[in-house]
Design brief:
Length: about 350
């Protein structure tokens, strides 16, 4: 495998153009083609001085030398495009969610595992030093036994966001688009989820997809989780508006996750660790310390990792099996909300 890894980008929309920028900024990778049926693909290709194509088959038939593909297209297209790349024996970095349904996600996992072609799922937060440090603190026992975790994903999406019709259709609400990152992060910090209870609502926007959801989780470890998501709330409490990962979203110093243990708790992403130096008691002083961290752009780290996966130096940090596990939780949220029952996953 060459030192310089050649990548093609499928989908030049909101996140696609950020992948193109990350590739330009990363070492050891080169963007060689953009595929998009929309003229935006030609614009992004022009900015990078490379060729553009209207469809994946046209690119594959062009003889362009490619080592891997980034799939940054609507959720409903992930299965077909990822399977076509695997058929062409090209490694894939596919945006989250892995697919729009659990069975489609399973098809991708099986195709990847049986062919040996690696699939990396685009949960870029896993490359954020904040989550890595939080995992280190949890694993070190600094928080004691994790009792409860909480995530809040409250943000407001403007009207023009919904002009892309796929974002109003099933498989593309804030649970699949935003909360799936939080689900992946909480799985990373607390382990697998044993059961799910959920309520969803589309009362504010009235689209086919939900605009809000409230979710209860029980982890295999015994820890409990509460998650709240809505794209109808003007608030600073979401990873998007606190982590400062994407210049499109002005960052605040608020937190959106609380990780609670018997000996301390952690606010994220501002990495504030709350502990008591003497006896643990609600009537004794408690102090919060900012854990120091030097961070790097997670999208650049992710594409650098993808290149190493292609070079067979490492295995994917977020596997297709992780993508399926996250998707099973999405399915459980939908089933629990519809049938008003607890869904057991283990
Ligand atoms: N990691 C993140 O933080 C993050 C952020 C935003 C979106 N996403 C994910 O990225 C994906 C794309 O989201 P978006 O907001 O950029 O969407 P978007 O609508 O802005 O862009 C999607 C692009 O894909 C193109 N497209 C559609 N079908 C195609 C095909 N068959 N081949 C090639 N291109 C095709 C569209 O023309 C469009 O330009 C979704 O899966 C979404 O969940 C991830």
């Amino acid at each position: 495998m060459p030192d310089l890894v050649r990548l093609a980008l499928l989908g030049a929309g909101l996140i696609g153009h950020r992948h193109a920028q990350a590739i330009s900024a990363a070492d050891g990778v080169e963007l060689v083609a953009v595929v998009d049926p929309d003229p935006v693909g030609g614009c992004v290709a022009q900015q990078h001085g490379i060729a553009s194509y209207r469809s994946l088959p046209t690119l594959l038939g062009s003889g362009t030398k490619i080592d891997g593909v980034i799939v940054a297209t609507p959720n409903q297209t992930h299965e077909q495009l990822t399977l076509a790349c695997i058929d062409a024996r090209l490694a894939v970095l596919v945006e989250k969610p892995l697919a729009d349904t659990l069975s489609a996600a399973e098809n991708i996992r099986q195709a990847s595992e049986s062919s040996g072609i690696p699939v990396l799922v685009g949960h870029h937060r896993r490359y954020n030093g904040v989550l890595e440090k939080a995992r280190e603190l949890v694993d070190s026992g600094s928080l004691g036994r994790i009792t409860s975790v909480q995530s809040v994903t409250w943000l407001f999406k403007p009207e023009e966001y919904f002009q892309a019709e796929w974002r109003r259709r099933s498989g593309a609400g804030p649970v699949s688009i935003n909360l799936i990152h939080d689900i992946d992060a909480l799985r990373y910090l607390c382990g697998e989820v044993a059961s799910v209870q959920a309520m969803t609502s589309n009362a504010v926007r009235g689209f086919e997809v939900e605009d809000s959801a409230a979710i209860l989780l029980r982890f295999v470890s015994g820890a409990l989780g509460t998650m709240s998501v809505s794209d109808t709330i003007v608030a600073p409490h979401s990873w998007e508006l606190t982590a400062g990962e994407n210049p499109m979203y002005p960052a605040t110093d608020e937190s959106c996750y609380q990780i609670g243990g018997t000996h301390g708790s952690l606010s994220l992403p501002n990495l504030t660790l709350w502990t008591q130096s003497g006896e643990r008691s609600w009537s004794h002083p408690i102090s919060g310390t900012r854990v120091p961290l030097t961070n790097e752009d997670p999208l650049i780290r992710q594409v650098t990792h993808f290149a190493d996966v292609i070079r067979a130096r490492v295995t994917p940090r977020v596997t297709a099996a992780d993508g399926v596990a996250n998707q099973r939780i999405l399915q459980a949220i939908a089933d629990s909300s519809k049938n008003q029952m607890t869904v057991e996953l283990t």
